[in-house]
Design the sequence.
C-alpha cells in the first residue's frame, strides 16, 4: 500500500489532522489506521471537558497561561503554552462546526466547568461524556470526507527507516527518515508494509503500563516505543499523571473515572474517619493541581491502611448532579452507590503521560517526515504536570499545526520503494499465551509497586532490574514467535516502563508528578530529560 499521508490513530489528534489535511488536499489520499475499533480511544473516555478561553470579557489568555505554567511546576515551554492557549479557542470553534455539542445554560451561553488548578470556570463539556461527543463528531465528519480511508484492526508494529534498508542507524545518525510502517493487518492476518510520504503518530497514552489505570486497553504506548526503537528522541517520561479520583472497584480494569469536575461542582474528599483532609495539604483544597491531590490521597490511604478515600457529594442537589454527571450517577447506582446518600470510594489511578515523543512547535519529531501529536507527543505544554482538560486542547492545536507544516512538504517527498517485505523466517505460532499475559501482569505490578506516586532510589533500582529480566525474556519470545498484537503491546509497555524508570532515575529532584523521597527538593537546574 502507498499513500501520501498516513495517520496512525483515530482519536482526537489523528482525526483532527486527517480532516484538515483531507480538506486542504481533496486530490490526495489520507489513510487513517487504528488497532481496534475506530472509536476505541482515550478520547472517547474523556469526561470533564476541554479548557479554553471562549470569552475574553470573563476570562483571559494570561490566566489560562499562568494556570498551565503553575501546574507544570517550572518545566512548561512558555512559547508552546502561549500557542496552545491562544490557538485553542479557534480549534474548539472548528469542532463545534463539525457538530460537537457542548452544554449551554438557560441564557444560551456555554456552561463552563472548573477543575483542579484552574483559576476560572473555563471548561466546555458535554455532560460527563465530553470525549464521546467529540469522537462522535470527528468520526462523523471523517465519514463525510471522501479522500480519507479509515481502516480498523490494523496494528502498527514498527516505523520503517534506513535501518530496514540495511543501514546501521544510531541516535547520532543524521537525517533518520520515516518511509512508512509495517502493520499486522488483522483483517487479512498478514504483515503488510504501508509506504507513505508523511506519517503522523497519534497513538495516545500508556496507562496500561500500570495495574490501575483509567486508560482503555489500547493505551500501551506503542508510538513512543516505536520511535525509541527507531532511535528517535523521547522526553520527560517520568511525569506520569495519576488521576486522584478513579472509582474504587477492585478487579475492574480500566478503572471508571469520577471526573474532577465533580470537585469543581463542590465534591469534597474525605478520609475513612469522614474528615475533609485537603485543607491540610494545600490552600486550594480539593481543587489543587492533580499531583498535589493524588499525593495527599496516597498519604491518607497509607496512614489509615486503607485502599481508598471517599468523595462526598451528598450535599450537592440530586437534580444538579444528575444534570451534569448522568453517566457517573448511573455507574455508581449500578454498583449500589446512590451518590446523594453514600460517599463514593475513590483512589488514584495512572491517567496521562505528560512526556512522550519529543516534538517542536510544528509537531515535527527528530525523525524526518514523521510527525507526532496528542498524548504520545511531548510538545512542552505540560511540563512536569498537565493542567486538567488541557489535553484535548493540545491534541487539536497540534493536529492543526502538524497539518500546516506537512501539507505542502508532501510535494517534495518521493515514496521510497525499495523497502523489503517483513521477514517472519524462523518464527512459529505462540505455544502458550500465558507467557505474554503473565508478563503483562508482572510489568504492571512492578510499575505500580515501585514507580507510582511516591518513588525512592531503591524502588527505582529494583524496578529496573525486574524490567531487565522481562525485556530479555520478551525479546527472546519476539525473535521466535509469530507477531501478535498482544506480543507487540507487551514489548511496547516494557519499553515505556523502561523509559519511565530511566527518566525517574535521571531526575534527582522532586518536581510536579515526579516525587522521590530521597531527593525531596527541587533542583535549580530546569531540565527536560531526553532519552
Ligand atoms: P487516543 O484518543 O488515545 O487515540 C489513540 C489511537 O491510536 C487509537 O485509535 C488507537 O487504536 C491508535 N493506536 C495506538 N497504537 C496503535 C498501533 N500500534 N497501531 C494502530 N493504531 C494504534 N483530557 C482532557 O483534556 N479532558 C478530559 O476531560 C479528559 N478526561 C479523560 C478521561 C479519561 C478516562 C481518560 C483515559 C483520559 C482523559 N483525558 C482528558 C485525556 C485525553 O482523553 C487523552 O489524552 C486524549 O484523548 C488523547 O487523544 P489522542 O488522539 O492522542 O489518543
Ligand atoms: C477529568 O474529567 O477529571 C479528567 C480531565 C483530564 O484528564 O483532563
Sequence:
Amino acid at each position: 500500500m502507498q499513500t501520501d499521508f498516513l495517520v496512525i490513530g483515530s482519536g482526537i489528534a489523528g482525526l483532527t489532522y486527517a480532516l484538515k489535511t483531507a480538506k486542504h488536499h481533496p486530490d490526495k489520499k489520507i489513510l487513517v489506521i487504528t488497532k481496534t475499533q475506530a472509536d476505541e480511544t482515550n478520547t472517547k473516555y474523556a469526561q470533564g471537558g476541554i479548557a479554553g478561553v471562549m470569552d475574553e470579557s470573563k476570562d483571559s489568555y494570561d490566566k489560562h497561561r499562568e494556570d498551565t505554567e503553575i501546574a507544570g511546576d517550572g518545566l512548561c515551554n512558555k512559547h508552546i503554552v502561549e500557542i496552545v492557549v491562544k490557538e485553542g479557542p479557534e480549534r474548539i470553534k472548528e469542532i463545534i462546526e463539525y457538530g460537537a455539542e457542548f452544554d449551554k445554560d438557560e441564557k444560551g451561553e456555554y456552561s463552563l466547568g472548573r477543575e483542579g488548578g484552574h483559576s476560572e470556570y473555563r471548561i466546555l463539556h458535554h455532560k460527563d461524556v465530553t470525549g464521546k461527543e467529540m469522537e462522535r463528531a470527528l468520526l462523523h465528519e471523517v465519514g463525510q470526507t471522501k479522500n480519507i480511508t479509515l481502516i480498523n484492526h490494523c496494528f502498527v508494529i514498527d516505523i520503517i527507516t534506513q535501518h530496514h534498508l540495511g543501514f546501521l542507524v544510531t541516535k547520532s545518525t543524521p537525517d533518520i527518515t520515516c518511509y512508512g510502517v509495517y502493520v499486522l493487518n488483522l483483517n487479512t492476518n498478514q504483515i503488510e508494509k504501508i509506504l507513505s510520504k508523511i506519517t503522523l503518530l497519534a497513538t495516545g497514552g500508556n496507562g496500561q503500563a500500570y495495574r490501575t489505570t483509567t486508560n482503555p486497553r489500547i493505551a500501551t504506548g506503542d508510538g513512543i516505543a516505536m520511535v525509541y526503537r527507531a532511535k528517535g528522541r523521547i522526553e520527560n517520561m517520568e511525569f506520569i499523571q495519576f488521576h486522584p479520583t478513579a472509582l474504587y472497584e477492585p478487579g475492574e480494569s480500566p478503572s471508571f473515572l469520577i471526573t474532577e469536575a465533580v470537585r469543581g461542582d463542590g465534591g469534597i474528599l474525605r478520609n475513612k474517619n469522614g474528615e475533609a483532609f485537603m485543607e491540610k495539604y494545600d490552600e486550594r483544597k480539593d481543587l489543587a493541581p492533580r499531583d498535589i491531590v493524588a499525593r495527599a490521597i496516597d498519604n491518607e490511604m497509607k496512614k489509615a491502611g486503607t485502599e481508598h478515600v471517599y468523595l462526598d457529594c451528598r450535599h450537592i442537589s440530586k437534580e444538579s448532579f444528575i444534570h451534569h454527571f448522568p453517566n457517573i450517577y448511573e455507574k455508581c447506582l449500578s454498583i449500589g452507590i446512590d451518590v446523594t446518600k453514600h460517599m463514593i470510594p475513590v483512589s488514584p489511578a495512572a491517567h496521562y503521560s505528560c512526556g512522550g515523543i519529543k516534538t517542536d512547535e510544528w509537531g515535527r519529531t527528530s525523525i524526518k517526515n514523521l510527525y507526532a501529536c496528542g498524548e504520545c507527543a511531548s510538545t512542552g505544554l505540560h511540563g512536569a504536570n498537565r493542567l486538567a482538560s488541557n489535553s484535548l486542547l493540545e491534541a487539536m492545536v497540534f493536529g492543526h499545526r502538524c497539518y500546516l507544516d506537512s501539507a505542502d512538504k508532501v510535494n517534495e517527498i518521493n515514496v521510497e520503494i525499495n523497502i523489503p517485505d517483513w521477514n517472519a523466517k524462523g518464527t512459529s505460532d505462540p505455544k502458550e499465551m500465558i507467557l505474554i499475559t503473565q508478563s503483562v501482569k508482572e510489568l504492571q505490578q512492578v510499575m505500580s509497586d515501585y514507580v507510582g506516586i511516591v518513588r525512592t532510589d531503591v524502588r527505582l533500582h529494583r524496578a529496573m532490574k525486574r524490567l531487565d529480566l522481562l525485556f530479555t525474556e520478551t525479546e527472546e519470545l519476539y525473535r521466535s514467535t509469530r507477531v501478535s498484537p498482544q506480543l507487540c503491546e507487551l514489548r511496547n509497555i516494557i519499553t515505556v516502563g523502561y523509559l519511565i524508570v530511566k527518566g525517574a532515575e535521571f531526575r534527582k529532584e522532586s518536581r510536579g508528578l515526579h516525587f522521590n523521597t530521597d531527593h525531596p527538593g527541587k533542583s535549580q537546574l530546569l531540565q527536560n530529560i531526553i532519552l
Notes: The mean pLDDT is 96.
